[in-house]
Write the structure tokens for this entry.
Amino acid sequence: MTDPLAPPLLDAQGRRMTYLRLSITDRCNFRCNYCSPASWGGKRDMLDARELARITSVFASMGIRRVRLTGGEPLIRPDILDITRNIAALPGIQHLAITTNASFLAPLAVPLREAGVTQLNLSLDTLSPETFRRISRQGDFDNILRGIDAAAGAGYASLKLNAVVMRGVNDGEVPALVAYAHARGLTPRFIELMPFGQGTPVPTAELIERLQASGLPLEPEPEEASDAASLTSGPARYWRAPGGRVGFISPLTQNFCGGCNRVRVASNGDLRSCLGGRAQAPLHQLIRGGASDVELAVAIRRALGDKPDGHRFTEPGNGATLLSMMGIGG
Ligand code: SAM
Ligand code: SF4
């Protein structure tokens, strides 16, 4: 019998899984209206730093090479440096990234890099404190700007600035966000809004046309360059502008599920085979019940055997029934 702990880790469609997204908390200091209910409290029964490393080591032995920590807000965890150190030290893990709202980042930017984090994705939808307040409902805007500047000066190999674009809210700020990111050496990326909360999406094609009409010369990056970049940075497609690259992530209008290489573990320890699906394995319960690494690997393979061929965001009525973004981490 083949060893369940050995690579490759394949899903039901034969796609090879190399990228693990770990939601390490469903708590957050913001309540972004496209992501979180206004009254969200979060739960505290999360995987601890040792359990996160144990699960990641099983995935690493099965062929996972890249890990992203997300949430909720990952930097809300007081043990974030232990979590990153443990995971970065695992054999086989080549890239360790964090997606963060940057509000706790100023004092952590250098320690996180020293703990083995290779890449940060910083979320910033607007340069206006008023629009920020309207989107995030709470939180300190100046802390975010300080966090982004600290990251820009901390020597990371790759820094991205992610903005979710919403019609009539921040779509007019896209050229200013490009300039803000390029001035700090960050790659701006614009994400089509997925139906988890409020707001109206702007299709990527329209955004590109509007950027070009605003006077920004944008040229599509050759496919090979975008493909090479996507090995380390996911499903974004990149264009070139005079100040640097500009990325677009288009889950609605350019379904990228065919090339999916990612598997998710939610903050409660459940493996989710797809952001837009429901197949899962209760890894936390298995660990607490004394499961061996082989038993965990078998449960992971069984859940991935049910991974759907693509998300169902665009099907009518699906937004209301999708899993909470806060628990699975985008
Ligand atoms: N709190 C961290 C942050 O905001 O960066 C990490 C978690 S957050 C869920 C991860 C990413 O998902 C953020 O860039 C956020 O903008 C994005 N996101 C949340 N809800 C979304 C939605 N409905 N559509 C598209 N992106 C979304
Ligand atoms: Fe929190 Fe990030 Fe969701 Fe905003 S997008 S509510 S910062 S988890």
